[in-house]
Design brief:
Length: about 350
């Protein structure tokens, strides 16, 4: 058995706020930069295209209809031309890409999912995942996903799985990936996540929360965890602050997300990037995942499968199913299980 070793790039970067086309251009530029620097995998943040809807934490929903419309207009579809451009760039650069995006659908102009795709170095989609449950105020924007993307992809870099933000808190979701032999876990987060008014209550410590969750999953699974959080740039901050006199104060005092690589012992193997925008690089050597399994192998000898059993439904949700002559027709909705790009 061989154990791959490779360099990964974690994109601690901001989108071009609510502009899908320019954000795709920026993403492709970053992919080329990462490839030039020897990276074989690049991980982008949660809903990088075209933005994380942090405005839901800053104003009541009755004031945010215009932002929701703008976000909906800049969603992309999983088989659409924007991801096709990213996939073609991945093929040209010979780099694997994990991309977070706001996913739309032709079925509904207002239905948006928090989605992520893993694209191979040959430009093919290996996995398409939708966040199972939006967290707190995120429910104002995103529909709940399904279990179809709880998949570990076998690649030349190893067995790769991914979860989005708060999903990394869900032990059953995490075990679902571990039980498929996950060796490299991709975790994506927003740039900032206000939970309280910092003037009256201690805020959610996003940095500490990420380190706890990423470290726990790495330690339990004896795997590498590559964390990419977004970056709140001045353009997005000022635009949101201009909408409400309290918004800027809350944003400025709310803890930022971090990007970091965690090793199989549960501790960081890279710098922690938080305050600056850029690419963070980390070296991954899967041979380091083997020895720790002697202590705790949760999907092997350190479990009792005669006692514990987990059943996961990976059916893809559909708004409608058609029947003709008493049998199901082939499903031809935009959310087909096997993705091909449309130009």
């Amino acid at each position: 058995m061989t154990y791959p070793a490779f360099k990964a790039a974690l994109a601690h970067v901001a989108p071009v706020f609510l502009d899908k086309d320019r954000t795709v251009e920026k993403a492709c530029s970053l992919m080329r930069e990462a490839a030039r620097n020897g990276a074989q995998l690049i991980v982008f943040p949660e809903t990088y295209i075209p933005a994380f809807p942090v405005w839901c934490a800053l104003q009541a929903p009755i004031h945010n209809h215009d932002l929701f419309r703008e976000l909906a207009a800049n969603t992309i579809q999983a088989d659409g031309p924007e991801l096709a451009t990213i996939a073609e760039t991945a093929r040209e650069c010979g780099i694997f890409v994990s991309m977070g995006f706001n996913e739309g659908t032709t079925v509904s102009g207002g239905c948006i999912w928090n989605a992520n795709v893993l694209i191979s170095d040959e430009g093919t989609v290996l996995n398409h995942h939708r966040k199972i449950v939006p967290t707190f105020y995120e429910k104002l924007v995103w529909a709940p996903g399904d279990g179809a993307g709880l998949v570990v992809s076998s690649t030349r870099l190893g067995r790769v799985g991914m979860l989005i933000c708060g999903e990394n808190t869900n032990p059953l979701a995490r075990f679902t990936l571990l039980a498929q032999g996950e060796q490299v876990h991709l975790s994506t987060y927003p740039p900032v996540w206000p939970s309280h008014d910092p003037a009256v209550h201690e805020n959610y410590d996003l940095k500490n929360a990420i380190l706890i969750r990423a470290g726990a999953h790495s330690f339990e699974g004896k795997l590498f965890n590559l964390v990419a959080a977004g970056y709140l740039d001045r353009e997005a901050r000022d635009r949101l602050a201009s909408r409400d006199q309290e918004a800027g104060r809350i944003l400025d005092a709310s803890p930022r997300g971090i990007s970091v690589a965690i090793g199989p012992n549960g501790t960081p193997i890279s710098e922690i990037m938080q305050e600056d925008e850029g690419l963070l690089y980390a070296n991954v050597d899967l041979s380091q995942c083997v020895e720790p399994k002697q202590l705790h192998d949760l999907v092997g000898g350190y479990n009792r499968f005669d006692i514990f059993q987990l059943t996961v439904d990976r059916s893809a949700q559909r708004p409608i199913r058609f029947r003709a002559n008493g049998t199901d027709e082939d499903n031809d909705t935009p959310e087909a299980d096997t993705l091909t790009f449309r130009s």
